[in-house]
Amino acid sequence: MKYFQFFIISIFCLAICSCKKTIDLYPESNLNTGTFYSTYGEIQAGVSGCYSSMRNPQLREWQLTELRSDNSWMGVTGSTNSFNRDLSDLDQFIPATTHAGLYSYWQDSYNNIRNCNVVLQKLGVSYDASSGTIGLANITTPVSDVDRKQFAGEALFIRAHHYFNLVRLFGGVFLIDRTITPTESLVINRSSAADIYKFIEADLKAASVYLSNLKYTQLILPANIANLGKTNAWAAKALLGKVYLTQNKKTEAITQLQDVITNSGYSLQASYANVFSIFTEMNSEILFAVRYKAGGLGQGSSFGNDFGPLNSASTVINGSGLGWNAPTTEMDTILIASDARRNINIAIYGTGVNATLYVKKYLFPVTIGFDGESDWPIIRYADVLLMMAEAQGFSPASIGLISQVRVRAGIGAVPASVNTTALFEKELADQRRLEFAFENQRWFDIVRYNTTMTTVNAQQIIKDHFAHTYTVHYSTYTAPTPTLAELQGNVTANRLLLPIPQHEIDTNTQLAIPQNPGY
Amino acid sequence: MKKIQCFLMLILFVCGAAVAQKKVITGKVTSQTGNDPLMGVNVLTDKQKGGTATKADGTYSITVDKNSTVLIFSYVGFTSQTVIIGDNTTIDVVLAPATTTGEEVVVIGYGTQKRSSVTGSVSKYQNERLEESPNSRLDQALQGKIAGVQIQNLTSEAGADPKIQVRGLTSIGQTSGPLVVVDGHPIADGLSFVNMADVQSVEVLKDAASAAIYGSRGSGGVILITTKSGKSNKTKYSVKYSTGVKTAYELYPMMTTSEYTNMLFYEAALKAMDPSITPPTANQIASTAERGAYIIENQLRNGASTNWQDQAIRNAATKNLQLSISGGNSAVKYYLSGGYQNDEGQMYHNNYERYNVKAKIDAQLSKRIKFSFNVTPSYIKRERPSVNYIDFVRFQSYMPVVLDEQLAAFVRQNPTYANVKAGDWAQAYYFNARVYSGLMPDGSNWINTTSVTPFNTSNNTPKSVMETRTITSNDYRVLSSGDLSVNLLPGLDFKSLASFYIKYSTALDFAKRNSNRAGDVNRGQYNDQLVIDLLNENTLTYTKRIKEHSITALAGFTLQKGSVKNEQAVGLDYPSDNITTLNNALIKDQSSDNTFTYIERNGLTSYLGRVIYGYKDKYLLNASIRADGSSVFAPGHKWGYFPAVSIGWVASKEKFIENIHWISNLKLRGSYGALGNNRINQFQWIDLLYPANYVSGSGNGGVSSGFIPNRDLLSNEIITWERTFSYNGGIDISLFRNAVSLSLDVYQSNTEKLLLNQATLAFTGATTTINNIGSMKNNGIELEVTTNNMRKKDFRWSTTGNIAHTTNSITNLGGLDFFLNQGERTEVYKNEVGGQLVQFFGYKTDGVWLSQADINAAQAAGLTSSLSNVFVPGGLKLVDINGDNKIDANDRTVIGNPYPDFTWGITNNLTYKSFDLSFSFQGVQGGQLINGDANYNETKRYNSNYNQNRWLSPMFPGDGKTPYSSIGFNWMLTDYVVEDASFYSLRDILVGYTLPEKWVKKARLSSLRLYFSAQNLFFHSAAGYRGINVEARSTGAQYATPLVDGYQRGGFPIAKTYLFGIDLNF
User: Fold this and answer.
1) ipTM of this model?
2) Predicted TM-score of the model (pTM)
3) Could you give the maximum distance between any two Cα atoms of chain A, in Å?
């Protein structure tokens, strides 16, 4: 009997001892933010995650930029598929505040802003809103001072990239410069567009100081080449130049752009095709690109298939195309046959009545569908040259800059007939449209021209676009068929901004979040 | 009273006179179920001392004196029977198993209890013929059988999990399905593999006081499954075989291309007669695409059309073979069984095959030590169709399934498809971009010179995808347990149980080259999962009876730990479609989304205690407490405490009721207790990092490792147990010698600290956060009634019915008034404080706008709208709910909810001589669903439920309620798609015949039974329902939260099943 009792008591004791072990468990398959970012390699991995997550908003960026511009349209006008309907709404300037694509873009952008903020906080980087400067806290980090600044610069550049896109698409958005809890988020309202620009400038100014300023020629030396593709001081300056130009701060823009032209070592490629070829990635013209890699690595780009012709089986690209971001007939007209940029940017699938245009820029052969190699350029040297021309305005120097781009495209220098400000501005706008076709620049460009140019107007460009293409395209929409007057009526100054996603307004029950006017 | 006594005296006198002296009576006692002879049945008379017991073959012989008037047969677990002796010298008796009253034993978790002393709300379901019902799974067989347990077949796919709810929803963030415990081991997927033939009984612990002993995880109720054990009798062998066929109860009424085009031209002819509208142009009558399709069907296919639903489904066969051996003596008892089941789904490529083995041994090792061992391996092989049924329904009839020579020649005229041959799968794009001309239904000749695309898609036809992509899985499971009971002191027992559950499942999803679209490479996805769950339970039980006080005390602790390991690999580009192993794949997908292994451990530590006290078996008290520590919460937040108490009063044992002869039993019960829920994913209290790799370097770059925090969820360190507090009041009554027994329960439960994935502002960087927020309430009432309508020797008839009603409401949402959730097709669900958990939210409609004049009149009266497509003749007419003459988002209101008013089931059991018949009706009354069929253009066009009686023109407005398919306001945002989800059905019916013993004996069998059963012979849906399976529910994964409910997208046909079976015992 004693034996049994002893036996029972010992079992009870054993169980109590093993209790804690049974329930004190920690994740075994995932790292966590609590313990990570404690070595050089871990911080580097955190920054790589920020680069990688730039791809998420980019998946939909064409919908908010190219599609709304005169470059592309929604190709399947008869479709009642909800995704296609969402695309038509953007194309026709009538997006709902609950638009799914808009919300996804917003989510993905802010998600990566958070990723950047996590890394920046670990590196002791903070933003002082009153002075509009970035500061480094006096703390010990697991990396050297040079590395700390390099990593901080990279995260700041990526954060600025997202905010620059958000402020141009949505106006004054929410300024989030650190990680926040759901409770903290309830008291944050929208900032003014000016405050957002101030924040972007601070990020990019700091980035251009913190980041490596090696010339392109040095970057491709064996000692440095492993970092090719990461951002650097020149990319930060070029982007800062664009931020200034967008605010019509032309003098400040010229300072940054001139620095890049003079000191960066970046240059135009001899041929337009080389700029985008998968065999010459990160060439001397690419200041910064979002990079992709094929081969079943989960690093591929889907744009070749996304923009490939619908129902093309494997005749154009393995896995067929989806026919998204279809070029407008205007692109077919203005990209003349002798222009070297035509065959890179667009192509025609099918013949006769079934011929359809599609975007070819990111279309290189793939083994598996939706797993392409092509990088997506964010800022390149040709852009720096043309921004310089835009900042300087009508002048022989500016004509010279445009000519560099024209000559490379095989259509010769700017003709002498371009002899007025109006003609100059038209020429510059046209060349930018052709040069950066389907690189998500056109929309931002035409909106910027409203301030940087005197004779080019974004609303008029879109209205003209509707007029040019109404009979061949917009009139073929069924149930309902929009009239041209309705379409043109949609293009108001207010609608140059997109609506703040309804989710952000509905979810906050403490603060009234103002919607953009016109929605 | 007097009268009755007189009457009894008279009977005694008559009987006494007939029996003059001692005589020998012989006979045989058998069990009503299976006609097995019963050994050891006590046979007594009413007057003389001593009696006898039946022998192994069930026979007995007793000498009775002249005073004895009746024989009393009693046996544990069976209802005693009294038979008047009269002139008989042979008395054969069939004993029925004890019904819901009397000394029935109920499994209550960590023990058993006599039914008469149960104070909580426990339902027991026991059916010796469970496996004869035409169901492939235990949970399906329980549908409608237990009050308050709602089981819904979300799909008719073979082997699919039904949705089970005990007393409605108690959680809004997390799954609130019941905890399933198989022979003491809590197993999440227990209902999916337990072999019905091995099930002894199913108990459902419904109220907090009963379930609190499973504390932590009992908030959704507890289902206890007890499997069969051997009995001490001679070895019995049983062989059961059944086979059957399954057919579709109903298909969608889809029009063929020709029928549809004919209708368009007929409608056009009508419209042409209406002077108030301009006559439709040729293109408005039928589009070039519709005309092209008509010509393909009528010219190229000579009028042949394809019924795509027939391509999806078949008459499916089912087979079930069960063998069992049981027996034993007083020291060792054993039960062995083996089973094979093959259940074909109605859809092609849907199969469910199951092999089960079970061995159970109970041994009395010594006077003090008992031992039991149980091992249950099983193997389930399953194939699932790779295409949804609705994709077949929606496909147009003009498309052939395969190309014949004539069509292939036509396709080859397009140089792109020069290699297409007869016998190839036909694809929509083969017929696109071609020029079609010819006769139209009205006799006109359509002369067309431009190319036409009848169906603009690059996807292959559903049949060709189904045949070229296979999804198979193999599940291997072992559940094994051993326990040792030691009697330490008189009344004090110690029991230690060790149990493990291992599941290994391996699945392959292989799509051949060009399966979904031309140009797709072949792709294989391999998924392996290993689940290990270990349980150790140690309990001390003390039972003591002191005079009129009885006490049973239990103390124990349990440890449960487990791990889940998931592995996935994806291969692409195989040289051949016939070799599907990963080593052949040219490309192994290396992305972390596609190829990974993932392991997660979990643990639960619990202490439990319970006291059951009874005074004179009349006043009953049951108190329990359980403390649980769970690994899913952060340190400091791991422990939850779940106390419960219940009381009972057996009024029928009180003197003043004892004398009321027509009351056999009357008991009042009341309980209160706390339950928990921790069913969230592990480690939501910590921000996990996920891979986000990137490319850098020269050339095409090299991949470097990157990490980002969880994109979807912000962690919350302070989350802890969700808790449900519930009251239950009940009454059990048996009347007229148990002719009528009923149980009535009323309950209310309040759930607090709901574990909710709360939406966050997206600018925080993630979309949700986990939080203990808000509370909700459930109220309900449920009634179970059993009546013994006929208790004659040759004819017995009993009826069991149940009915339950439950309502839920949100009482707090963490300070917010409501949430709005958008569903799969923009339909909106509202979760509102004070309202039911899920309500459909949208616009009310009042028929359709009959004419432009109608609209003009309304607008002249001041009606405006900021929404698009509101004022369209033939479109839905929205109601201005708030009366401000402006139709906008403020006019949305609650337009329905998915909750039934009540659910019910009635089962009748009849036996007449050797025949038996049982049939069950089951139904759901009230509640609505959102029918997503209305979202799809194909359904709107070709489904005659949507296009009959529709509005055509002011002169031909149809029924004034059916809008024209392509115009007006989006249907999905209105009550036009909200349909009544009520139904009732003849769920199953069973007719059996047990062969006479004298025939069977010759074949050396102890019994032989034949039966026929059928399921869903009759199924009635409510009038407003436009689908074919009112029980079906489905929604995309990202909308699958408890906050979105009641959406149906293309139901799978209800299965009508016929089964024939044979049952041998020897």
Assistant:
1) 0.94
2) 0.84
3) 114
